[in-house]
Write a structure and sequence with these properties.
CATH topology of the largest domain: FAD/NAD(P)-binding domain
GO molecular function, one term: thioredoxin-disulfide reductase (NADPH) activity
Family: Belongs to the class-II pyridine nucleotide-disulfide oxidoreductase family.
Order of helices and strands: EHEEEHEEEEEHEHEHEHEEEEEEEH
Keywords: FAD, Flavoprotein, Oxidoreductase, Redox-active center
Low-confidence stretches: 327-331
Bound molecules: NADPH dihydro-nicotinamide-adenine-dinucleotide phosphate
Number of strands: 19
Largest sheet: 7 strands, mixed
CATH superfamily of the largest domain: FAD/NAD(P)-binding domain
Distance between the termini: 46 Å
Catalytic activity: [thioredoxin]-dithiol + NADP(+) = [thioredoxin]-disulfide + NADPH + H(+)
Protein name: Thioredoxin reductase
Shape: elongated
Mean pLDDT: 93
Number of domains: 2
Strand content: 25-35%
Length: 331
C-alpha cells in the first residue's frame, strides 16, 4: 500500500453503518475502544431504503428505517463513537496479528489494532425504471420485512432460488394469492423448497415469465405486465399490490478479495459461533457474512459479538505486551 497522509493509530475501526456496524460501535465505545466508524456511501445501509420497520424489538408501534438508523447513530455517538462519512478504498491486513493498514477515500491512511467489517450486502434488482419508481411503495426486496403490509392482498414474487421459494411460502401465509415469476422452465431452489411451494395452494407459479413493467399510481403498486418467454409475446397482466424481488444478494466484499476467506458467492467466512475471520483482529458481522437470516436484529446481534471479540482480542494483546515488557531497574 502506498502511504498517503498518515492520520494515526486507532484501536478499533468499524467499516459500514448498518445495524451491525452501529451495534458494534455502541459496544466498542462503551468498552473504551474509542471506535472510529466509516459509514460508506449509503450511511445507515439498506434500512435507509425501506419505509416501515415493524419487527425490530423495542418499537411497539413500528419505526421507519431511516429513523431507526438515526437512533442507532445517536446511541453510538452518545458513548463517543467517531462517525465519519467516508469510504474505505484499500486495506492491508496483517496476517501475523500486527496492526492493519486502512486507506480512506484514496487520500489518507491509518492503522488499527482491530477492524470490524459490517459492509453488508446489496439486493439484486431487475433494473426496471418502474421497479425503482415504486421501491418502498409496493416494491420490496425483503418479504419478511414488508410482507405484513400486504396481508390479505395479492402479490407477486420474482426469483426461483431458495430465497424466492422461502419468501413465497412466507407470503402465502399472509396474502390471499402469490404469483411466483420464474424466468426459466425450472427452479434453481432445492427439491424440498420446490415441493413446499408446489404444495401451497395459494401460490401460482408462472414459468418462462419475465417482468415487463410494474404498474401503479399515487397509492403504490396496482399491477404488473409480464412477458411470456415461451410464446415470445406479452403475457398476463396481474393485479397485485405488492411486488417482491428475490433474485439474490451481492455481499459487499470486493475490497477484501485475496485477503479474507470467502465462500463461492463472496460472503466472508467466520468461525463457528464467532465473528472471527481468518486474520487475527479482523471481525465480520451482519449481512456481509450471513446469507441466511439477513435481518436487522440478527445483524445487530453479530455486531455485538464482533465488538466483544475485538475487546477481548485487544485485552489479550495488551496482556501479552505487559508480560513481555522488560523489567525496569529501580535505583
Ligand atoms: P440464487 O442465486 O440461488 O437464486 C437467484 C434466483 O433468481 C435464480 O433462480 C435466478 O434465475 C433468479 N434470477 C436472477 N436474475 C434474475 C432476473 N433478472 N430475472 C428473473 N429471475 C432472476 O439466490 P438466493 O438468494 O435464492 O440464494 C442464495 C444462496 O443462499 C443459495 O446458496 C441458497 O441455497 C441459499 N439459501 C438457503 C436458504 C436455506 O437453506 N433455508 C434460504 C435462502 C437462501 P435462474 O435460476 O434462471 O438463474
Amino acid at each position: 500500500m502506498t502511504y498517503n497522509e498518515y492520520v494515526g493509530h486507532i484501536k478499533c475501526l468499524i467499516i459500514g453503518s448498518g445495524p451491525a456496524g452501529y451495534t458494534a460501535a455502541i459496544y466498542a465505545a462503551r468498552a473504551d475502544l474509542n471506535p472510529v466508524m466509516y459509514t460508506g456511501i449509503v450511511p445507515g445501509g439498506q434500512l435507509t431504503q425501506t419505509t416501515e420497520v415493524d419487527n425490530f424489538p423495542g418499537y411497539p408501534t413500528g419505526i421507519t428505517g431511516p429513523l431507526l438508523m438515526e437512533d442507532l447513530k445517536l446511541q453510538a455517538e452518545r458513548f463517543g463513537t467517531d462517525v465519519r462519512f467516508g469510504y474505505v478504498t484499500k486495506v492491508l491486513f496483517s496476517k501475523e496479528g500486527g496492526v492493519h493498514q486502512v486507506e480512506i477515500d484514496g487520500t489518507k491512511t491509518f492503522t488499527a489494532d482491530t477492524v470490524i467489517i459490517a459492509t453488508g450486502a446489496t439486493a439484486k434488482w431487475l433494473g426496471l425504471p418502474s421497479e425503482e419508481k415504486f421501491n418502498g411503495f409496493g416494491v420490496s426486496a425483503c418479504a419478511v420485512c414488508d410482507g405484513f403490509f400486504f396481508k390479505g392482498q395479492d402479490v407477486a414474487i420474482v426469483g426461483a432460488g431458495d430465497t424466492a421459494a422461502e419468501e413465497a411460502t412466507y407470503l402465502a401465509k399472509l396474502c390471499r394469492k402469490v404469483y411466483m415469476l420464474v424466468r426459466r422452465d425450472e427452479f434453481r431452489a432445492s427439491k424440498a423448497m420446490v415441493n413446499r411451494v408446489m404444495k401451497t395452494t395459494n401460490i401460482e407459479v408462472l414459468f418462462n415469465t419475465e417482468t415487463l413493467e410494474i404498474i401503479g399510481d399515487q397509492t403504490g403498486v396496482t399491477g404488473l405486465r409480464t412477458f411470456d418467454r415461451e410464446k415470445e409475446e406479452e403475457g398476463r397482466t396481474l393485479a397485485v399490490t405488492g411486488f417482491f424481488v428475490a433474485i439474490g444478494h451481492q455481499p459487499n466484499t470486493a475490497l477484501f478479495s485475496d485477503q479474507l476467506d470467502m465462500d463461492s458467492a463472496g460472503y466472508l467466512i467466520t468461525q463457528a459461533n464467532s465473528t472471527k475471520t481468518n486474520i487475527p483482529g479482523v471481525f465480520a458481522c451482519g449481512d456481509v457474512q450471513d446469507h441466511q437470516f439477513r435481518q436487522a436484529i440478527t445483524a445487530a446481534g453479530t455486531g455485538c459479538m464482533a465488538a466483544l471479540e475485538a475487546e477481548r482480542y485487544i485485552a489479550a494483546k495488551e496482556d501479552l505486551a505487559t508480560v513481555h515488557q522488560p523489567v525496569q531497574e529501580t535505583i
